[in-house]
Design brief:
The chain is α/β, with parallel strands linked by helices. The protein contains 5 helices and 5 strands. The radius of gyration is 13 Å and the shape is globular.
Amino acid sequence: MAVKILLADDLSFMRMIQKEILSQRGYTVIGEASDGIEAVQKYAELRPDVVVLDITMPNMNGLEAMKKILKIDPEARIIICSALGQQKLIVEAIQAGVKDFIVKPFKPERMFSAIEKAMKN
């Protein structure tokens, strides 16, 4: 069964790149969100296997979205995707329960390994 993924990033081109990379590997992107509020709503609606969340998004950042998603589902598998220079936020995310983080720009193999790691937990 294909792993179902929700992508949350305020940059549509970043979601497009991620979706293309994941689709080529056989993953299924079942939803996309452009901010944290939408990510939480889509998670509740779609219940994906894995969420890839950008930290820096408008309306609600990735950390707040992550906390709300974990309240909905404490077993949620969340991967944070962040630009360099966000180390403090990444540490906070790990302490709060994310499965892994990916630093932008990332290589496709790094994303695959993060998803595989998340699915094992």
